[in-house]
Amino acid sequence: MTRKSDKTVRFDLPLRLGAAALGGYALCWSLFVLLCAWLPFSKATVWYFTGQLAPLPLLGVLLWAFAAHGAWRALLWPLALAAGLYLLVLIR
Amino acid sequence: MSPLGKALMGLHAWGGMIFSWLLIPVFITGSIAVFEPEVSQWMQPELTAHPTRPSDAVALAETHLNEHASDQPFWRIRLPSEREPHIGVAWGKNPRQLHEATLDAVSGEPLHERATEGGHFFTHFHADLLLGAPGRWIVGAAGIVMLAALVSGILIHHRFFAEFFTLRPHAGKRRAWLDLHNLSGVASLPFLLMITYTGCVILAETFMPAATHALYDGNPRANRAEVVKSFERKPSGVPAGMLPLTTHLAAAEAILGEGKVSSLLVRHPGDRNGLVQAYRHVDDRLAAVSDHVTFDAANGTLFGQQTEWNPMTYAYRAQVGLHTAHFGGLPLRWLYFLSGLLGALMMAAGTALLLRKRRQRAGEDRPQRLLDALGAASIPGSVLASLAYLAANRLIPAETGGRETLEIAAFFSVWAITLIHALLRRRRAWHEQFVAASAACVLLALADTYSGGLVDAARRGVDLTLLATGALLFASSRRFFRTGDAT
Questions:
Q1: B181 with B133, same domain?
Q2: Considering CB atoms only, which of A32, A54, A58 is closest to B214?
Q3: Residue B437 sits in which domain range?
Q4: How would residue B167 be classed by pLDDT, with cut points 50, 70 and 90?
Q5: At residue A48, does pLDDT exceed 90?
């Protein structure tokens, strides 16, 4: 086994754990901020709507983090998606 | 196994086991919390249970409050219900921190029940491990992992079942654990998905405040203030007589329904601007929202009412209601209780399965011993800790100061002892702790039955449940945890 693959194996789990926790949280946060900015309903309606969705992005990213090929891919996709959603909020 | 299932096997097995150390106690305490008032009744034998009419109870409460709290700006009266058949009165200057007392529903005499957190301790531990906001983050994270373990379990189970029976029919004990894991998991799957999802929704209010920041500048109470109408006014300083509270109760029942008022809140009694607010029961509807109506205390005119809700708030509160199970009555509570324990059994069997697999590969190394000990502390250990809490309630004298804290200390001390015991006794600890828990169940049930428990329906129910639990624990200790052949 080469040094490089040793390193990959060593960082595989921490990267995936980071993807699940940070990626999931960031994606959920930016998705909610986007919904709050875009949905044309009263504040309370939007708040109680997003509240019911909260487990979904976190669950999705957690499953993705361990199903994705390659640990870096597991981490970068949710973070990129979160950044993209956040950009949409800023553009508006 | 499908490729996706294979990829998620590590998350399912290891993520599931590590978080099961927390999730099993959370499921066990959550199942007990379904019967919170009954457990509180068991833990306070001083409490009486007499059927009474709401108006009689309100009149008794008003007499007590006039005698003891006529100068206080806030009064609260909890009417007797089937599950809490006594009167709760409370008074003080801050409606969030009232001085409380319990009265007999027929005589109106104070009951001087022993100080205890009662059944609420289990609800509290279940929701936030007694740690407040950090606890809700921890339990929330465990809930998300639980959801992932359930979804990945469905993916793994999908083809696993067929392959398993065709390829490896000989793996005796391991197969028994797997069958138990699958059986309990499949049987309770819809419940587990529902209870875990709604639990995460409730906790997300704390751990995912994105919408609160985006809409309300991070003020967590602001959204509630927007949907729950509040009818208040400042005291005038002018004294004025108050209509009897029974009159207000009758007016409230005309709007909220006869026998549907759960509690009354009086603001500034004896002031010209005094108000009486009545809250409706939540136990006959899915959504945990309480309709309320407010009257002018002096002349009884309607000051405000809320019986309609923002539909999205109602949907959200329906998820809360689905989780807390105040609707649906006794049959539903038993269904929740048993399904929750079935969920704990599913996790316990999964843990036993993984521990066995690892032992076959790695033998009795140090990590294995630690994993075994943590498993024992979370499965029979958390049961023993809960029983220690109940036993402490009977062993600590009723007059002892600070006894409610001592009861909780008993829970955590015994839990710590089960971990130390499991580290010292290794695999034998499983069997010993199961037998000890079984014996503790039977002893507690018998001790309560022979000290007056038979007269009270709630206590009888708790005692019978303890006996049944004791029998089940003993049967499992024999079936699965024979000495030296633990998992």
A1: yes
A2: A32
A3: 365-487
A4: very low
A5: yes
